[in-house]
Amino acid sequence: xxxxxxxxxxxxxxxxxxxxxxxxxxxxxxxxxxxxxxxxxxxxxxxxxxxxxxxxxxxxxxxxxxxxxxxxxxxxxxxxxxxxxxxxxxxxxxxxxxxxxxxxxxxxxxxxxxxxxxxxxxxxxxxxxxxxxxxxxxx
Length: 139
Description:
Layout: H1 3-27, E1 40-41, E2 49-55, E3 78-80, E4 88-92, E5 99-106, E6 115-117, H2 119-125, E7 130-138
Parallel strand pairs: 2-6, 3-5
Antiparallel strand pairs: 1-7, 2-7, 3-6, 4-5, 4-7
């Protein structure tokens, strides 16, 4: 095979690969033009996970968490010891609205509960003290 023919075959293979990548990107659900609205992914049986959560008392505004989030009075997020940084989740308390938030720090939380909530998120949810919340991952 001549070098020119081999070069042409490599170029055509590259074009085919690029076309395949573009086709996958166009067909992906995130680029479907639906506005990017996230919806809860229910757990088996159709429900949400439940966990005990409470407002974190150890908040140092102006500092940065180990997930790279600067803490401000209006920061809304959860602290967890297991979930990765910046992963999003819906949380809800009682019959209130669900709130889309994210893991803003990874560290051990108070024994007996799953999440620490920022004071702003706890206020949005109407949580005082330690309460049982519902949570799921978005899709």
